[in-house]
Amino acid sequence: MSILIPVFLTAAAVFTVYYVLIHLVYGPWKRFQYFNKEIPGPPALPIVGNAHLFDRDPAKFYQQVLQFCRDYPKVFRIMLGPTCMIAIHNAKDAEVLFNSTKHITKSFVYDFLHPWLGAGLLTSKGSKWFHRRKLLTPTFHFSILNNFRVVFNEKADILARKLSTMADGRAFNIFPIITQCSLDIICETAMGKNIHAQENEKSEYVQSVIKMSELIQERQKYPWYWFDGLYSVLPSGKEHARCLKVLHDATSSVIKERNSKFSELYPRGIDEQSVEEPKKRRLAFLDLLLHMHRDDNSFTFEDIREEVDTFMFEGHDTTAAGASWCLYLLGRHPEIQQRVHEELDEVFGDNDEPATSDQLQSLLYLTRVLKETLRIYPSVPFIGRTLEEDCVIGGYKLPKGVNAIALITGLHRDPEVFPNPEEFDPDRFLPENCVNRHAYAYVPFSAGARNCIGQRFAMMEEKVMVSAVLRRFNIQSLQTPDEVLPLSELILRPSGGIQVKLTPRS
Questions:
Q1: CB 3.0-4.6 Å disulfide test: which of 63, 69, 124, 212 passes with 129?
Q2: Residue 32, CB half-sphere, CA atoms under 13 Å: how many?
C-alpha cells in the first residue's frame, strides 16, 4: 500500500501538468494562432493580443475602430489577450448574428456589468432571459409610455427654463445639461423618485451612475483588469466598489419605500384605470415590477433591483447622447434646423403647452432627423454576443464559444448602403428611400430577438427633449466634427462636450 501512494501522487501530478498544458496553454495557443493567421485584423502578440495597440484615450480608440472598418471591409478580428473578438460591420454578416434565436448570449465583456446589474434583462441568458423578456414586454405598452410622457414633458420644461438663462448668445456645453434632464426622467419613470438632477447636479447618486459607466468601459478594454482579486485592490477597483454601494443602497432603499406605499397607491393593484390616471398618481416602472411580485413571489426583490438598475443604466445615457448629438447636428446644419422649426410651428403653433401623444406622432421630419442622428452617432456603438453553435461569418468558420461584436457604427457607415455616409441627410429615412435597404443595415436599437425593449420609450423621450429646446430656441454648434470626436465608451458620448450658442426664437 505504501508503494502505491507515491505512484498515485506521481500519476496525479503528471495528469495535472498534462491538463494544464493541453487545456490552459496549448489549446488557447492553437486558437490564437488560428485566428491570428486565418482572419484579417491588426497584428496581435501572444498573451496581450491587440491590447497594446489600443489608445487609452477613448476618442482616439473610437477612431481606431473606424479605421479598422475601413482597412478590413468584411469582418476582422481583435484579440483581447487570448480571447478572439470577431468584429462585424456589414449587414449580410450581421444578419447571421441578429436573426438567430440561438446566438442571444451576450459577450463576456458584459460580465463586468453583473456586479451592478446582476442578471437582469440586459445581461441574462437562456431560459431566464426568455422568461424575463416575456414578463417585462407589457411594461412598455403604449398606454404606459403615454403615462410616462407626462414626466417627459415636465422635465423637458425644466430643461427649457434652465436653458433660457443661457440663451444670450454665449457659448456653453449643453451635453451635461441634457444628461441631467435625462437622469431626472429616468429616475422618476423607473423608480418614482424625483432626484432633482437638474437642480442638484452634484448628487452622489448621479455622479456614481456616471462614474460607474466609465469604470466598466475601462475594465472591458484591458485584460489585466479582468481578475477580480487584482482589480479589487487597484484604485479603479476601489472606486468601483464605492460607486456600487451607493447605487445598490439607493435602489434598495427606493424599492423598500415604494413597496411600503404600494397598497396605498394602488388599492386595487395596477389595472387599466390606474395606468390611465397620470394626474392622480405617478406610475413608475418599479410599481409595475412590484405588482408582478405580488402576483408571483418567485419574482423577488433582488429580481426587481436587477431590472430597475438595468433600466437606469440603459435608459439615461442612451437618450441623453441621442438628444445631444441631434442638437449638435442641427446646430451644424441651419437649413435642416429651419425645416424642424417649420414643422414644430405647424404642429404646436406659438404656445408652450406640453406635447400630446398625437402631436409627437405628427413630427415626421423630426423623427427622420433623430433616425439619421442615430445612424451617424448610434448611442450604443457596439453589441457583443457569444456564439452558441459553430457558424460561418464572412466566409470564416467560427467555433462555438467565439465572441462576435456587431460594430453598429460601422454598419451605419457602409457606403454601399448609405452613400456619402458622413453626410447628415434625414431624407435617407423617407419611406421610399428605405424600401430596398437591408433589414440589418440600420440597427440603432439592436435587432432580432434581443432588440431593445425600450426603443419606443427612448424615441419618445428624445423627441420631447429636442422639441422642447427647438420650440423656444435657435441653436448654433461651435465645433467641427473633428473637434467633437465621440468617446468609445459604453455609450457614444462627445469628447469635450458639445459647445453651442442659443438665442430665443422671435
A1: 124
A2: 19
